Amino acid sequence: MATHKIKDPKAVLCIIFFILFLAGAFTLLIVGGILFGKESPKVKYYGNSMCLVQSGSYKTYQCKSRYYWYTCYGPTWNALYGANQTTFALVESERRYRSYIDALNKAKEYEVGSSYSCWYDTRHPTVAQWDKPSSTVAVILLSCGGLCILLSILLFFLAIRLVKQEILQQQQNSVQSYTSKDYIR
User: Fold this and answer.
1) Helix 136-178, helix 9-45: angle, nearest 10
2) pLDDT tens profile 67-106
3) 12 and 125 Cβ atoms separated by less than 8 Å
């Protein structure tokens, strides 16, 4: 089988964009899937209540940068919620800070003795968070990933069509060169 060098810039661009959209689709689907897997149970099982802040502090974690592990800090709060504020919960922020002072400053944003809206895990009542659980971002990422796959498929078929047209044109040009008057004597 003869190999053909693709010279049509439209076909080359279709192939390049096909590869880019496919890589983007996989990235969006992986990130969206991980995020959806993390947030979907929270949307299903977390209930709303008012949490009375008893104390604020920080917790030490091991965080990873691109090249190394380091100690980081996350703000935490001890809170009471439920009927007559009798259920204890530890509220942990998902945000991490390099300085414990920054984590403490964030913890001070929720004043001791004040009540704030919180979301608690109905399966594990001692776990709570301040923000309402939402899988909207994950669904958007998954939708964009699906759209990228659709665009990749369209670009793939367009590239095939353009390459076939180019091959047919090259074959017609080679047949015409053999049957031209210069070769017939």
Assistant:
1) 160
2) 999 999 999 999 999 888 889 999 999 999 999 999 999 9
3) no
Coil, helix or strand for 67? Answer: coil
Q: What is the DSSP string of 110-179?
A: S-TT-EEEEEEESSSTTEEESSPP--HHHHHHHHHHHHHHHHHHHHHHHHHHHHHHHHHHHHHHHHHHHS
Rounded to whole angstroms, what are the CA distances from 72 to 17, 97, 124, 130? 40, 6, 25, 20
Each residue of 111-170: pLDDT tens digit?
A: 999 999 999 999 999 999 999 999 999 999 999 999 999 999 999 999 889 888 888 887
Task: Tell me the pTM.
Answer: 0.72
Determine contact, residues 32/138, Cβ cutoff 8 Å.
yes
Distance CA 84, CA 120 (A): 16
Q: Is residue 43 a contact partner of residue 107, using CB atoms and an 8 Å limit?
A: no
